[in-house]
Request: fold
Amino acid sequence: MGDGEAFTYNGGRVGPGERQNVRYGISETYLGDPVRIPVTIINGEHPGPTAFLSAAAHGDELNGIEVVREVAHEWDLSELAGTLICLPVLNVPGFLAQQRYLPVYDRDLNRSFPGKEGSTSSKRMAHQIYTNFIEPCDFGLDFHTSTRGRTNMLHVRADMTDPEAHRLALSFGSNVVIDSEGPSGTLRGEATDDGIPTITIEMGEAHRFQRGLIDEALAGVRSSFAEYELTDETAVRWPGWRTIITGSSEKTWIRADTGGIVDMLHERGALVHEGDRIATITNPFKNDDTLVEAPFTGLLVGVLENPVVYPGNPLCHLLELDAETRRILEREQSTDALYDSELS
Reply:
């Protein structure tokens, strides 16, 4: 935990009560120009934990960028207790190209942590980010979206077997938490293994800002800051209902068995019942429909946005719910439907 002292990184120092906006060099282009990531460091006057907020490890995942920017530059952090490291765009080359991976042999920056000196380009970049801005932290929130052509409801992914990651995940206040170890090389997985509990927040789709999801994520950040007493927020958020998905039997990707044009019949966040029709796949002549049904009752945490598929492409991500959570969600969605009908 921080003690009100200066925050230092290679080439810089931020004293208590100070703020810095830095463009930090992590690599070079083919022309020898610097590749620099934007970093905002706010060091509070009061002692407290050191936390990081990161986004755009995949360069086309934009929602989290706005979350991190708003915290860094629109929130009143004058009474911050501790230090906050804001990293809105980790994958600058991918962001500039508006693509998921580094446009350097299509390397995945989020499979390259904690990085390594003298290794591949992606691992060198990851090493610079990790050693300067992740290793000094006590916890972190890493923002992502679904990949191109799909969308996710806001949910948290965390290693719930780690007590501190468990605490952090619950503090964010999302309805859904998926329990999983971060894959090797991910920022979440490597940081948690190093004793820096980190959670992934999945929200929406690539290539756009989605204001409702951004606002929901900002509420989660406030809640986590309250839990760790970074700010004077007093309440940790309770989302009304919560499900923690712990086993592979409780979730499944439903995939297309035929190629064609897809009509998705439900949006992300919908509750579907066993046997409900989720989607229809047709050929260009609409004379050969394939019906896709829910194999069990559950929550559509992610759905297809791009309405074309090859066989094997994912259509949706379905999570099984316990009976009590299902009843709460059924009441909530029936109330929402009644309200919408009254408005219309």
User: Anything to note?
Assistant: The first strand starts at residue 7 and ends at 9. The two ends are 53 Å apart (CA to CA). The longest helix spans residues 323-343. The mean pLDDT is 94.
